[in-house]
Protein 1
Amino acid sequence: MKKLMNQNWFIAIVFMVLYKPAIFSQMPQYQTFDKISNVLKVLIIAVLLVWFCLFYQKFSMYFVIFLFFEVWRILATIYCDGNYSSLFLTIFNSLAIVLVVEMGLKTDPDALLDGATFVLGIFVLINFITVLLFPQGMYEFNTFTTNYFLGYRNNSIMLIFPAMIFSVVRSLRLYDRLTVSSFLICVISTATVILAFSATSVIGIMIFILFLFLALINWMPKFLNIVTYIVINIIYFF
């Protein structure tokens, strides 16, 4: 079983299910497919948890930080009397993604990066095409009309960012430079956010591009590291 983590096709399938585009949950004609994929998602999450406990066992510092963050989200939801079912569904999905990344990095980072980049890159490309074909939105959901392949224009950034990050890390790891495919994913992602226009996403992606540029020219300020990012994120979320 552990050898599956060395296969980029297996990683691709897992990411395809865990990062299921919102269109399949929001359009009535895809309800059957959506139910099947939800069952697969539950099975994948259960298998990953057992798998991790059997073969990996030791959690990294980042995984522990993730767990603390999710506990904080639960407390915030209780305090604000929020939507618990939506919260726990999101947490379990995020937990599965973190587990896949955690196990992939410990087993075969190249397989992880290949599988994730392939699937998320295709999703970003399809979403970009739907934005071009339906500038005012592809369908209506919960009174929102600017919905595309990845869902509402404001939410698609949750898949666009990982797509950019996986592709950039993959190209820098394998070739020590930004490859054409990685560059295209970044360009398409940026164009998508600008065309669909969500102010929050535009600001976020511009900051990401700035950090990417600083990293590529090897001029990243020393105070910008994983510790400061975590602290900033906690303060911002609070």
Protein 2
Amino acid sequence: MRLVEIMRPNPKIVTPASTIGEAFRLLRENRIRHLPVIDQGKLVGIVSDRDLRDALPSSLLNHEDDEMVFSRPVTEIMKHEVITGHPLDFLEDAAKTVYMHKVGCLPIVEGDELVGIITESDIFHSLVELFGVNRPSSHIEVEVEDRVGVLAEVSNVFRDAQTNVTSVIVYPCRVPTRKLLVFRVQTIDPRNVLQLLKERGFHVVAPIDEGGPLS
């Protein structure tokens, strides 16, 4: 999945001349958390609701200085080094970037032009949809040998059980020669496919029956 498919186009923006008060109103009125700062068509910074909270006095104090803070330009609180994404980047790469750099959003730029924005909430929502957990389904984990063709062999079991696979993820195991295949299947009663996996000699890690993992 490419970012162009899930990004929010035409994001709200501010300019270096915008005041902190203007930025605060934009965030509150649009229920958003990030505002790219654009100067002559180029992305020069980003301001977040956290930046605004840090700029204001504590809620435990009086607010006599609020108006003075609100009149200051956003350049005084914005982040100048902005981590961005490209419309053709993959969703998982964007998720990795957000995770590694601990940022709440990625402005999406093409050349020098800001074309959209994607937030950590957008990424989380898209991953939930991609894994199929937002639809009635079941989670099945199968531990297998790390060898060519084993995924196809396990997939054949789901085919023979007439059970549709909505997503599959491959995880490493503690044992280097083994892999964990995590399936999301389109059924709320996986007993048939679990029994067939057992009969074909595959080690089912989850779900666990009363006697332990199916194997």
